Amino acid sequence: PRQVLAMAEDLRAAVASQTKRLNSSGEVVERLEENGHQNKKLKSDADEEDAEDQNKRLPKRKIVLLMAYSGKGYHGMQRNVGSSQFKTIEDDLVSALVQSGCIPENHGEDMKKMSFQRCARTDKGVSAAGQIVSLKVRLIDDILEKINNHLPSHIRILGLKRVTGGFNSKNKCDARTYSYMLPTFAFAHKDHDVQEEVYRLDKETLEKVNKLLACYKGTHNFHNFTSQKGPRDPSAKRYIMEMYCGEPFVRENIEFAVIKVKGQSFMMHQIRKMIGLVIAIVKGYAAESIIERSWGEEKVDVPKAPGLGLVLERVHFEKYNRRFGNDGLHEPLEWTEEEEKIAIFKEQYIYPTIINTEREEKSMANWLNTLSIHDFNSSAVGMQANNKNSK
Fold first, then answer.
1. Residue 4: what pLDDT?
2. How many CB atoms lie within 10 A of CB 119?
3. What angle do CA 252, 253, 254 make, to 5 degrees?
4. CB burial of residue 204 (10 Å; 0-12, 13-18, 19+)
5. Would you say residue 49 lies in a domain?
6. In the UniProt record, which is one GO cellular component term (predicted)?
7. Which candidate in 50, 53, 92, 123 is catalytic?
8. Shortest CA distance to 173 belongs to which of 136, 135, 137, 133?
9. Are residues 161 and 238 in the same domain?
10. Last residue of a domain, one of 153, 172, 191
11. Do 302 and 358 reside in the same domain of the chain?
12. 122: alpha, beta or left, given left = phi > 0 and alpha = psi -120 to 50?
């Protein structure tokens, strides 16, 4: 027992001297702090504060960001300030810009302060592989990495370029290219009993689809392809440069095809309605003449295809590039170096979401069942009679 007591005593003494040493070094640390020296323990906090101060001193510069995102579960791109129940892509983007230190917090609340402008508003559920936003930021180190660290993996910033001070991504954009990925059974004739996984698009049907899509090329009055625009509204006239459906391919037993459309600019729901009408014709619900009729003044019932397959592929700045792209100060807004990243993002996030959602929720199959309730034959005369009666 005496031995045990002696050991315990030694241990106690050792602990006491250790504590004393720690206390005195603590005092030394405190004294050093009072003298204005850096405390090692707090170095990381101080580093962050230093970085924050440095950020504040950085001048703000006008840039564009190249964005890709999978739009499922979002109410479109554009932020609705004050409406938190409908989450948008910009809610997540602005939060990441603030957290990474590129913009001050109050710019997040009032986006005009950073001259924020998106190129396209993309509707609910719509994805993008090449969306462009312009804004003023502090050009911090590793800016892309820092922004992406605060974004969910299905939203990525893939590139950044400096632009002129007056640049506005919406006004300076002279064309937009969208794609629409859909299961090819959408084109099966309504009188044929179709097994969705077995259906394969034949050459004649694809040719018919492309003949109809080509009708949209040129300038037309698209008032029937959006809501809240009258037939005499000049802004309903839109210019379509190209529209076609590519060769079909099979993914997870379902055959898909991709429709590409390039136009100057599009109105809300316009592309989905353009595609919806072509599907209705190919399936045999509507006559081919309905496309011509839809440019006219009468109201035509145009069905709107699901938002799921729609992807903003790229935006074009041809005039800007000619004027500023080679002025020695600014780069042209071309993203050849980012093409591979864009392709990988689509394969990882956009296509699987479209394919899996189609398999699980059957958005196209369910929508096709609604085509029979549309009235594709109401004539202008019939409409006038109905209006008189309703009056």
1. 53
2. 27
3. 95
4. exposed
5. no
6. nucleus
7. 123
8. 133
9. no
10. 172
11. yes
12. left
Amino acid type, 231: P
* Residue partners of 15: CB distance under 8 A and separation at least 6: none
Number of domains making up the chain: 2
Whole-number percent of the chain with pLDDT over 90? 70
Q: Which amino acid is at 177?
A: T
Domain that holds residue 129: 60-172
What one-character-per-residue DSSP string does 302-356 give?
Answer: -----STTEEEEEEE-HHHHHHHTTSSSS--S--GGGHHHHHHHIIIIIHHHHHH
Query: Per-residue pLDDT tens for 99-140?
Result: 999 999 888 788 888 999 999 988 888 999 999 999 999 999
So what's the pLDDT on residue 386?
46
Cα–Cα distance for residue pair 308/303, rounded to 1 Å: 15
Note the pLDDT of residue 86: 87
H or E segment at 66?
Answer: strand 60-69
181 in the same domain as 167: no
Same domain, 288 and 150: no
Q: How many residues does the chain have?
A: 391
- Pair (302, 210) in one structural domain: yes
User: Can you read off the two tokens belonging to residue 9?
Assistant: 């005593």
Percent of the chain with pLDDT over 70: 82
Same domain, 120 and 214: no
pLDDT in tens, 59-113: 889 999 999 999 999 999 998 876 667 899 999 999 999 999 999 988 878 888 8
**Residue 354: Cβ within 10 Å count:** 27
Q: How far apart are CA 369 and CA 188, in angstroms?
A: 12
For residue 245, give the CATH number of its domain: 3.30.70.660
Residue 275's pLDDT is: 98
Cα torsion angle, 81, 84, 87, 91, sign: positive
228 secondary structure, DSSP code? S
Q: Is residue 328 part of a domain?
A: no
Average pLDDT over residues 380-385: 44
| Contact of 65 with 132, CB cutoff 8 Å | yes
- Does pLDDT of 346 surpass 80? yes
CA-wise closest residue to 189 among 126, 312, 283, 326? 283
Question: Do β-strands 117-118 and 127-138 pair in parallel, antiparallel, or remain unpaired?
Answer: antiparallel
CATH code (residue 165): 3.30.70.580
123 catalytic residue (yes or no): yes
- Residue 379 belongs to a domain: no
Is 74 assigned to a binding site? no
